[in-house]
Amino acid sequence: MNRKAFIQSHGAECKNWNWSWSFVNEAERFIIFGMWQDAGTKKVGLILHRGWEISAKGRKNNGYRQAIEHIRLIKEEDYRLKTFPMIGEPRNPEEGELSASKITEFTPELNEARLIELPDGWYASHADDHFETIAEIVAGNEEVEFWEGAAFRIQVNAYERNAEARQKCLKHFGFRCRACDIDFGEKYGALGQGYIHVHHIKPIHQCGGAYKVDPIRDLIPVCANCHAMIHRRADPLSVDDVRAMLAGQSQK
């Protein structure tokens, strides 16, 4: 299936199939953008760069003007955003990311996403993304050599994390850090919306392998900074410990 057939199979259209970068389904009120990043990474991906307004030949790109209108529909008219993963290369390699890219490969798969506006352009984040947490590393006896400027490997014990348990924890507690009270959405806007770590109150490696997680009693949301401080000690601090430390610091 080519890109045009894929887009049309979802009821979306555009002004011109030769230069369009974005597409609209008016009946169901959603916009489709290609996202320049593999969907499996669960990271924000670029959908429109501000540097793409002008072509390498100095002319305005028609695709950019249409894309801006489609972004307006998302921001002001409550159209939903959907994306599909793309791989491409700059039309003018010497200009790098500032040159509108030529699609070399795409995945015919739509994902619900939310729009994130940053200084250099517009990005998309998947609606069901699960942000990374700090790995719990168990010290071993293996000797590891570290070399500056070279790749190296660290051997650790890995423990499976349950995404559904994480979701239930956040549905109960919300996305505010229970130690320092930061909400990334309030602090960083759309980029931080929904971002938070989930901490295992009892370290996974002390649970003797697989165990049944209670999302309310065993898990708690904390920001990346507080999570790092909790694990700063071999015997992790409690969230209450960190909260008390922060309160003490604020009084100095």
Describe the structure.
The protein is an alpha+beta fold. It has two domains: 3-126, no CATH class; 163-250, no CATH class. It is 23% helix and 21% strand. The strands form two sheets. Strands 1, 2, 3, 4, 5, 6 and 7 form a seven-stranded mixed beta sheet that branches. The protein has a two-stranded antiparallel sheet with strand order 8-9. Strand 6 (111-118) and strand 7 form a beta hairpin. The longest helix is centred in the N-terminal third of the chain and has 15 residues, at 62-76. The termini are far apart.
| Helical proportion, percent range | 10-25%
Ends distance? 64 Å
How would you characterize the largest beta sheet? 7 strands, mixed
Strand content: 15-25%
Number of helices: 6
Mean pLDDT: 80
Any low-confidence stretches, pLDDT <50, length ≥5? 132-144, 151-160
List the helices and strands and how they pair.
Layout: H1 3-9, E1 22-25, E2 30-35, E3 45-49, H2 62-76, E4 80-90, E5 101-106, E6 111-118, E7 121-126, H3 163-173, H4 184-188, E8 197-200, E9 219-222, H5 224-230, H6 239-250
Parallel strand pairs: 2-4
Antiparallel strand pairs: 1-2, 3-7, 4-5, 4-6, 6-7, 8-9
Can you describe this structure in just a few lines?
This protein is an alpha+beta fold and 252 residues long.
What features would you highlight for this structure?
6 helices; 23% helix; alpha+beta; seven-stranded mixed β-sheet; two-stranded antiparallel sheet
